[in-house]
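Data availability (excerpt). All sequences and predicted token strings are deposited with the supplementary files. A representative entry, (2Fe-2S)-binding protein, is shown inline so that the format can be inspected without opening the archive.
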Amino acid sequence: MSAGQLRLCHRDDIPEGTARGFLPLPGAPRNVIVVNRGGRLHGYMDACPHYRGGTPMAWRRDAYLNGEGTHIACHAHGALFEIETGACVSGPCLGRNLTRVPLTEAEDGSISVPAQVAGRAAREG
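Structure token line:
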């Protein structure tokens, strides 16, 4: 892992077709959501853009996808987001996007985020 990166998880921690939330720093109020779709990993802040400051989206731990597993869902507002782009396609935040988080995968399968992303997650809440 390069300098300025913080490890979130290992690729194997996110099976195909699932999403999980990881705290980038201990005690951070915001998770980083990692979704595995088609073998590609997508990262977003766990903050629905419907309200200023964002609302956590899962109704229970790691429940970030809709029932069909086709979209990221905000269970508080009923919003649906495209997994590949983070664009809201249904719900009260139509036309807005989730905040994308750049993910880096190391040769050993470790997934990390830039330290500044981890810092932002620690400040928001």
